[in-house]
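Teaching assistant's notes for section 4

Start the section by putting this record on the projector. Ask students to predict, before seeing the second block, whether Dehydrogenase will look compact or extended. Collect guesses on the board.
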Amino acid sequence: MNEKINAAVLGCGLMGRTIIENIWDSPFLGEIIGYDVSGEALKATQEKYNICVTDQLDDILKDESIKLVYIAASNDAHVPLAIAAMKAGKAVMTEKPVGLSIPELDKLLAVQKETGAFIQVGLELRYSKLYLKAKEIIDSGRIGKPVSYHYTYSCSPYERESWRVKKANSGSMYHEKLCHYIDLVRWWNGSRVSEFVVTSAPNTIPYFEIEDNVHVSCRFENGAVSHLFFLMTAAPTGNSDMLQMKTDLFDQDKDGHKLNYIITGTKGAIEIDVFQRQLRVYRHAGDPAQTKTAEEITEVYAWDEGRDHEHFHNTQTQNLDILRRAACGEPPYLSLEDAAETMRLCVEFSAAQQGHTWEVIKR
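Reveal the predicted structure now:
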């Protein structure tokens, strides 16, 4: 029989409510308690899910029946809430990012080491089927040794009223959005970033306090190179977040939303087009088995509309897995040290980008 545990969700906005829905039917879940500083958010959450809610954090921290907390507040609140929860003896799942500065990140690591608490950062692309498929192909050797990762991401901007455009709340575009994709390439490649170049054009969105475009080139210790190009002005509609699924991916693609990857190896390549719901594997002239001059498609992987979420932002499997691990006393799927390396890069990239310089930073 499964042991059920009570869980609290700290932050009852969109992400917090998503977590509630993700874990609602888990056999490992007892009760859910919601916490927020906004009375409006608490009222909406209580009415929709009929759960207990509170605006007093101590109600959560002092309740020994609550074994796990999910943190879904604004970015600047993640580390303070995680530290308070770990010191109170709770297991912690925190949405990304963690640590808007190196000292804050180091403090989080120190408290986890001191308490031995379970903590996992929400980098759900590592649970997502599309990216797991790419990882399986890379690790199998079917494209040889990966030497290059190129990825392009284009979407429409956050709204003027969003806390995400405020530097004090979000940290940077790296922390708020791009940490997922920085982490993804780290995971695929399995090597540490040894040096990087970061730059950007001047912002074109006047109310943004963070970057609205990014160019990042990295060299890894194993010799591989990656390049990320991100732009938040090229999509003309208000469908700013594909996670909301307001329109079909194919239609968002027509609106200028792009999320593409090309992973080149010594024998072949992987091409991923998220908005076309497709992954293709190529064999090129570097493979002795390839007798043709042109590249040859050897595999095609695709999925239908109803499986979008599980393929490229699988929060449900992640949140259910964290609940199960906390209930069963298992360690996190992703260690804090691993996630912290991604967050450290986000801090370093953002700092290097100030002034739009073009300088190689060695680590």
